[in-house]
Structure formats: C-alpha cells, structure tokens
Amino acid sequence: MSRHLVPLAALLWIALVPAAAAAPLAVYGRLPTLEDAALSPDGSLIAFVRTTDEQRLIVIFSLKEHRFLGGVRVGNEKLRSIDWADDTKVLLTTSSTGLPWGLSGSTSEWYLMQSYDVQKHKTHALLDSVRDLRTMNVVWNSPMVRHEGTDTVVYLHGLYVNDRTTPGLFKVNLNTGIERVVRQGTTDTIEWLVDDHGQVVIEQDYYEHERRWAFKLPRDGRLKEAASVMEAIDQPSILGFDPSGESVVVSLIENDELVWRTLSIKDGKWGDLFAADRPYARVIVDEHNQRIIGTMPKADEPQYAFFDPELQERWEWALRQYRNERVQLVSLSQNRSKALLLVTGPHSGHGYQVADFDERLIEVVGSAYEGLDVIAEVRPIVYPAADGLNIPAYLTLPPGRPAKNLPVIILPHGGPEAHDVLQFDWWAQALAAQGYAVLQPNFRGSNLSLHWVQSGYGEWGRKMQSDLSDGLRYLVAQGIADPKRACIVGASYGGYAALAGATLEPGVYRCAVAVAGISDLREFGRWIDERTRLGHKTRLRYWDRFLGVSSPDDPKLAEISPIKHVQAVTAPVMLIHGRDDTVVPFDQSTDMVKALQRAGKSVEFVSLKREDHWLSRSETRLQLLQSSVEFLKRNNPPD
C-alpha cells in the first residue's frame, strides 16, 4: 500500500567538490553510515540508524545534552522507517519476506512495527495481542499518532483473519499496552483516516465489479457512503486534512487533469480545488496530525511553498545558510521551531544538520556516508528525443576529468512511473567515481506530471526505450560521451530497459547490466494475474496500459520481450537478482540467463541471497556494486 508521508526537497543543485581520491566502492555500496533520521516532537532528540561494518543500531541522540541516550540493535532486520510517537517513544517499522504464518498465499513482503521506550530502553511488538480478534501482527500504511490525556495512542492499518486476511484499523495505547480493533473492513477496504480526537472521519473502499472508489463518512454513528469516483485504474488518493482539519484533500483525475479537491467531512460534498492558486506536484504533510501545511510546485525541480508565512520565512532563512547546496527537509518539531535537514553540497558534503529557527543556529549531526570526500557534479540537462519531445535528465560527471569523450553509463530509473531528482544517488555517484559519466533520463512515462506519465502509455519497449538511446546520441553530439564506450545499467523497470537495450537496440551499447529486470512480459503478466485472481485487477490493467496490450496473452508482447530477441544480442550481459524479490519474480532473470546461454551469448548471473527488490541489505548491495563495476570495467574500461 502507498504511504502518505511525502518526501520533501529543495531546488538547489549539487555542485562539484574539488577533486580528491575516490572513495572505495564499499563507501557507496554498503548502507549509509547514518540514515532514517527523525526529530522528536519537542525537537530535543534525534533517532537515526547508525551502520558500522555489519553492525546496525538505532541510536537516540540528545541535542540539548550532546550525548547518546541509548539505542536498539537492528541486526539483520530490514528497517523501513522510524517515527516518533511522543518525546519518549519511537515507532520502528521493519519487514521480512515470506509466506503468512499458518495461512496460504503468495510470498510477500510483510511489515511489522514495534515501539521503543527511550527511558526504559525496552521494545514492544505491536498488534500481537489484539483483544477478541484473530489478527496478523503486520501493518501497512503510515501510523497515525494521537493523544488521550496523558496517554499516547497510535492508529495502525493491519489485518485480521476470518476466511482470509482482511484490512482492519487498530488502536494501540503505548502507555497501557492495550490493543483493540476500531474498524473491521472488508476485502474492498483501502484505508482510513482519523482526526485529532481519534475518530474515524473517512474510509475509502474499491468495488472491482463496478470499478468504483467510494468514500464513507460518519453519519448517525455509522460510516456511510458520501461520494464516489468511477475509475478503472488510477486510485483517488487521500492526501490528508486541509489546514483547518474540516475537510479531507483527495487527489483525483478530472477532465484528463490531476487535481486536488476537498471533501467536506461535515456534509460529504466535494468542495473547491485545493491550492488552486499555485502550481503543484506534491503536498507537504505535518506528520503529527496529517494536515497539509504546504505544497511542492514541481516534481522535477521541487520548491517549498508553506501556507504559514512564518514557517515560509524560517525555511527561506535556512536556505540562505546553504548557498549552492541542496537542502532536504526531513522532519519538523511539533512547534516548528527546529528542522532536521539533509544537506548535500561542496561545503556540507552529504549529511544531516539541525536548524534552530528561534536561535538562528545550525548544528551538524553527521555524515550520511562516512569516508565520502568527493561528491560528483550533477547537471540537469534537457535533450530532444527522435520525435522532438524534450527529455529532462541528470548527468553525473566523474570528478577530476573534463567532460569530453567520456565513457558513459545510461542509468534509467525503475517504476517506470517514478522519476530521478537532483539529489545524491549512491549508484550514480559510485559509477562516476570509477570514471564514468552517468545519464539518468526522465523518459516519457516518468511521473513528472500526469501528461508525462500518459505520454508513456503503449510506449513500453518503444519510445520509452528510444528516449534512452536518444540521450546517448545527444551526449555524443555534445562531445561529452564516446559512442563506442556506452553501457546501460538499471534495476526493476531499469533492468528491463537494460535487457531491451541489448536485445531491441543491438549495437548501441557495449554491455548491459540488468538488476531484477523483466525479461518475459507475457509470463510477468500471468504472474500478476495469478496473484490478483481473487482481488482487484487495477494492477494488471495498469501494466496493460503501459504495455499497450489488452491481456497477458496479447501476441504484441513478444515484440518487446527481451527473452524473445536473444539472438540479436551482440554485447555481454550481466543479470543480478535477489532471491527474496516479491515484485519481479526471480525466474525472470534465470529464464533469461538460460535463453542467452542456449543462444551462445556472453552472459553472467549474480544471485543475491536473502535480498529483496529494494536492495535492503548492506552486504548484498555491496555485492551488486562490486560485481557490476568489475563487469563494466572488463567490458567497457573507463580509461
């Protein structure tokens, strides 16, 4: 399920750091030294993950006393998020891959939550003792923290079990440990939102047979349908409360445009467009009450636009302290007097800092990547595709080398409905440190805007693919890249693009590295269909729309499936895949390896033990980077 905590970013761009010795691959490949930082509600404490070698700890640091107050050993757990419930309790979300215990079903990524008491130095698993209901101790969506007198309670989306797992909304009192169900949903239920008093104010459901999204509001002690939207694929998203808390803001498509519209909690009527006086791409949500406090006008060049003039002035003061550096807002204290920032640039490196707005002070917390002395220059560029469409992209240049006749790596993002932004990217930075220029195109289909996404419909393996090679041709025309020294590397959809680069565009790339890439689109579609055979079909329709087909058995899929074109391959190929991947099946890579071997092509395969789709483990992420860089240097030497 999608989360509604919105990552924030600023417009400033990453500048070139004076040349120095490149950091070893382990600095980039392992998980960050310091990550997942969060500021306590009163602004006095910071929780973050500290990684040293193979040891991972959740650390609590006092800004007032300048000392560590304790921590929790993470071990091999895959930590997904850290959220403060109050000034003494931290919510820790982890995940594991497997089958649901005692139930049948598909292997999935299951999220679990526990609380950590900073004062007592104790952890407690949540949703494992719900009264009078058989539940799974798993969560989805973001926690909603509220307060009842002196008690802190957290509302969680979880699952209860009858004849199958079904969504439920649960209330956990972190002071007393009492857990109870608030709402028992149905298999149609999508999510809930609670107000400041812990009352459910909206429920969203989806009815597959009607392809209708319904919004239920409290009426006469019950939740009754007040509004609905007919949509076969694109889910209307509940973004949060408006600043007054009297309406919910919903993202939906009207007249082929993405809009934000208010839905009144009181009368259930759709209201005016929200923030219609400003261009927008994402909302900024107060994590303490789920109210929207600002917007970000552009997805590709994000800027902050807060509704509160005082907060806007404070933010602009913080930006002035970091000229020519990129500043990301990580979290705010509840009274908005302090902000935890992630800063990247020539003076700050890449690390966390705290801005004290009242005292007008900046305090350094620590570097995100210990041992990283050089940050390669990242340039925003725009280049024309073959049909004239302008493609925005980011070019990372190797430090200490002139931008002329360079070996180049095309690094398309996953998704494909995602996008690269002007920020520190460990993979691009690692490749640049080896001497390669790295191009990250936001090809058509990327989610820069609704229209940009729509421009990719039916273009999977077609113009979405040629957008990438058009970027290479542009760099060659500018004298930046050597056309004989170009490789393509990517993960997930980017992994598909790497395989397609080797099979559908032979002769363009000198080598290809595909991580968790899709090779057989018909089998991938059938796999999705099987996993959703008893539920919603929106996901299958979503993929069909991008692929430009009507079903997983559409014969047109053979035209764009790399496994059907292995005979065309002229360049060495490396495939890498995590054994615990629940997003792209492992056999998408193993089947492609076998097909390439049967065709007598040069292929190498790296299996990542206990690794998922997101490269969550330090040792396997480093294994991926070391294997791929060795392959690239062997087949496309940077010097």
Mean pLDDT: 91
Q: What is the CATH third-level topology name of the largest domain?
A: Methylamine Dehydrogenase, Chain H
CATH architecture of the largest domain: 7 Propeller
- How does the overall form come out from the CA principal axes? globular
Number of helices: 11
Helical proportion, percent range? 10-25%
Q: Which ranges are low-confidence, i.e. pLDDT below 50, for 5 or more consecutive residues?
A: 1-20
The main β sheet shows up as: 8 strands, mixed
Spatial order of the strands forming the largest sheet:
28-29-31-30-32-33-34-35
Judged by helices, strands and strand pairing, the structural class is alpha+beta
By CATH reckoning, the class of the largest domain would read Mainly Beta
Note the beta-strand portion: 35-45%
Q: What Rg, in angstroms, do the CA atoms define?
A: 25 Å
User: How far from one another are the termini?
Assistant: 45 Å
Number of beta-strand segments: 35
Structurally, how many domains make up the residues? 2
Describe the protein in words:
A hairpin with a 6-residue loop joins β21 (282-285) and β22. The protein starts with 24 loop residues before the first helix and ends with a helix. Mean pLDDT is 91; it is low at 1-20. It is of the alpha+beta class. The strands form eight sheets. Strands 28-29-31-30-32-33-34-35 form an eight-stranded mixed β-sheet, with helices on both faces. The protein has a four-stranded antiparallel β-sheet with strand order 1-2-3-4, with no helix packed on it. 17% of the residues lie in helices and 39% in strands.
